Amino acid sequence: MPELSSPLNLTVIGSGVIGLSTAHELASHGHKVRVISDQEPLQTVSAVAAAIWFPYHSENSPAADVLLARTLARFEALSLIPETGVDLRFGVDIERSADADRSWTRHVADAQVVEPSAVPAGALSATSGTVPVITMPTYLEWLQNQCRQLGVIFEQRTVSSIAELSSDTDAVVLSAGLRGGELLGDDQSVYPIRGQVIRLANTVGLRDWLSDDDHPDGVAYIIPRRDDIIVGGTDVANDTRLEVDEQLAQAMLTRAIGLVPELADCAVLEHKVGLRPARETIRLERVAGHEVPVIAAYGHGGGGVTLSWGTAERVVELLDQ
To answer: In this predicted model, what pLDDT tens digit does every residue of 54-65 receive, in sequence order?
Structure first.
């Protein structure tokens, strides 16, 4: 990977999947990078993610398409390295409306419309394809270790303002999720989307993923990973509750079993809740008005994993500009 013309001392705020991917990309280009965060990677909302490469409720634009394609290519390459926790898995997206968004299929080599006879009962249609599925605890630990091998320094503390970093960094990349707008002081548009999932033991050998975003009883997805299955989910804007809602959990499990009956035999391992940092559009740009150059990289909503490497590559391009 080519280095940029002049190595810089850079600070990345945030240790979720966007922050780690960006730190890795910057360090790979020869820069000296530190990551500052008030949470360890496994404490971030990224660790709650299912996680599957799928542009769920993410920005639909030519710019986002570039991020999607770049991220897909990187994850496909990482799937060849077992210790990353990245696997390519076949699955089906159930469609219940005549104008279902199939934009994701243009990026996926084997994407196709499912034969009508194989469409689940109650659905109008379905599409299928093979996409990356990421076991996030494994992946985040691997990615952080890769960063450390590249010389990235990690500091666990809370940043109160960009100004406090101006004396010891050449530029700041802000990937602080929900705090992004707060730290910049010019953006009130970031809001939380509450996500709740269930982690099941994969004792039935399930391999194929299934997504049913328009299920009449609520969002439903079933994502088998290496040793577990993530069942979801919820998609509630401006709900900041971090405690598990037992009634919602039972409803999610009921929906999932209705779609894949063998899940009834899988033990519940864990319930998890996270707040996705959403915005009408991703903020990925240089920001003027600060004592040091600042690049904003936040507002990915439920697409943080799906857009992560593309975002990191774009940050390098913005820095080079």
So the answer is: 987 666 788 889
pLDDT value at residue 62: 86
pLDDT tens for 185-232 read 899 999 999 999 999 999 999 999 999 999 999 999 999 999 999 999
Contact (CB, 8 A) for 304 and 17: yes
CA–CA dist 15, 205 (Å, integer):
32
**pLDDT tens, 87-124?**
999 999 999 999 998 989 999 999 999 999 999 888 99
User: Which one-letter amino acid corresponds to residue 90?
Assistant: F
Taking the whole predicted model, whether its pTM rises above 0.85 is answered as: yes
Q: Give the chain's end-to-end CA distance (angstroms, integer).
A: 18
CB atoms within 10 A of CB 181: 21
